[in-house]
């Protein structure tokens, strides 16, 4: 009987210590704290620019950051396109814009990778929509307040099948 009472008392004491520890140091969501406020419409590339500056047939519904277009390509006609941009905004702002803009267009962020090599600081976003639409957005630091974007969009074809 003494052992049961001691065990029960030890269990109660350990539960109280755990609960006090949790309330003393609540977890901090660092991702939410570090993300900048972004005005999605203000940074969206216009439909006119998409149709004239991006590769032929690029789907106008796919969000693209409003920046200088440095390259475009049709990887697979009618289903996979690529583009490169240079933005005068930092990586955190541009990558957050892509997270929010794609979410607003009903895309799902599958995963995110941080680039932290000597030559490349940035973020890679892997997104999908439904069963056949995929997008990979790579945002790299070009300087303190500038970034480059490489985007690939595939509709109806797996990007893994293409590259």
Note the main attributes of this structure.
single chain, 163 residues, alpha+beta, Protein Transport Mog1p, Chain A, six-stranded antiparallel β-sheet, 5 helices, globular, disordered N terminus
Q: What's this, in brief?
A:
This protein is α+β, with helices and mostly antiparallel strands. The chain has five helices and six strands; from the N terminus they run H-H-H-E-E-H-E-E-E-E-H.
Could you walk me through the main structural features you see in this protein, from its secondary elements to its overall organization?
- Mean pLDDT is 80; it is low at 1-33.
- The protein is an alpha+beta fold and 163 residues long.
- Strand 1 and strand 2 form a beta hairpin.
- The protein folds into two domains: 2-32; 41-162, Protein Transport Mog1p, Chain A.
- The chain has a six-stranded antiparallel sheet with strand order 1-2-6-5-4-3, with helices on one face.
- It is built from five helices and six strands, in the order αααββαββββα.
Number of domains: 2
Which of globular, elongated, flat, extended, rod-shaped describes the shape? globular
* Number of distinct helices: 5
Amino-to-carboxy terminus distance: 69 Å
Q: Please name the CATH architecture of the largest domain.
A: 3-Layer(aba) Sandwich
| Unreliable stretches covering 5 or more consecutive residues | 1-33
The first-level CATH class of the largest domain is given as: Alpha Beta
Helix content: 25-40%
| Structural class assignment | alpha+beta
> What is the N-to-C succession of helices and strands?
HHHEEHEEEEH
Query: How many β-strand runs?
Result: 6
């Amino acid at each position: 009987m003494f052992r049961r009472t001691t065990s029960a008392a030890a269990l109660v004491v350990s539960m109280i210590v755990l609960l006090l520890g949790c309330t003393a140091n609540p977890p901090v969501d660092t991702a939410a704290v570090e993300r900048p406020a972004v005005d999605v419409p203000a940074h969206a590339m216009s439909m006119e620019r998409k149709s004239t500056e991006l590769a032929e047939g690029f789907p106008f519904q796919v969000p693209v950051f409003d920046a200088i277009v440095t390259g475009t390509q049709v990887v697979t006609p009618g289903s996979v396109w690529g583009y490169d941009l240079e933005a005068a905004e930092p990586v955190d702002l541009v990558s957050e814009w892509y997270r929010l803009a794609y979410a607003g267009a009903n895309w799902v962020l599958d995963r995110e990778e941080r680039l932290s090599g000597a030559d490349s600081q940035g973020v890679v976003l892997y997104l999908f929509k439904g069963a056949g639409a995929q997008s990979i957005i790579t945002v790299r630091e070009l300087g303190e307040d500038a970034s480059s974007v490489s985007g690939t969009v595939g509709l109806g074809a797996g990007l893994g099948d293409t590259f």
